[in-house]
Design goal:
0% of the residues lie in helices and 51% in strands. The protein is mainly β and 174 residues long. A hairpin with a 6-residue loop joins β11 and β12. The protein contains no helices and 15 strands. It has a 4-stranded antiparallel sheet, with no helix packed on it.
Length: 174
């Protein structure tokens, strides 16, 4: 068991690494690496070896998370003009596709316990506060679940914990 006394550096790139997520089987780590004005997704083995970039191009990617099976990765993609949308790809970086298509901000994706849906935060200028939505990984119309951000689905899939910001500065569950 990890006790905090045996930590060690896995990356040493001066560009800056962040947004780390460990695969469900513990064998891979996906993370974000700064690349000039952009950020891209990188994969490595859990021991830090085999670091390789899996997203490319002019857009920035951030906030990656593995599906429960470890076969897919949800992430946020943002072109330079600032629209943040939820995307999905295979864990090896292939078959990327957009799941949300709003003219606003979609962030903090997380899978439900089955990997069939992705929960995420959505900011609407019209509403003026963060909301939580869910979208099927096969696509379709996102479902509004309520106000809040940073959704986390319980292991049994029956509840979603969230942060209610900025109105209440509290934690909630739905």
């Amino acid at each position: 068991a990890w006790n905090g006394n045996s930590s060690r550096r896995l990356t040493n790139d001066r560009r800056g690494d962040s947004d780390v997520c460990v695969s469900p089987n513990g064998k891979q780590i996906i993370f974000v690496r700064q690349d000039g004005d952009n950020t891209h997704l990188w994969l490595m083995s859990a021991n830090g070896t085999g670091q390789h970039q899996i997203t490319f191009g002019p857009d920035s990617q951030t906030q990656p998370c593995f599906s429960p099976s470890g076969r897919q990765i949800a992430y946020v993609n943002s072109p330079h003009y600032g629209l943040w949308r939820i995307w999905l790809m295979n864990a090896n970086g292939t078959a990327s596709r957009r799941l949300t298509n709003t003219n606003e901000q979609d962030t903090t994706p997380t899978f439900d316990q089955t990997g069939a849906s992705i929960y995420y935060s959505h900011y609407s200028d019209t509403v003026g506060r963060l909301q939580i939505y869910a979208v099927n990984v096969a696509g379709g119309t996102p479902r509004l679940l309520g106000f809040g951000t940073l959704p986390t689905v319980s292991p049994d899939g029956k509840q979603v914990a969230f942060y209610d910001q900025p109105q209440n500065q509290t934690l909630g569950i739905m």
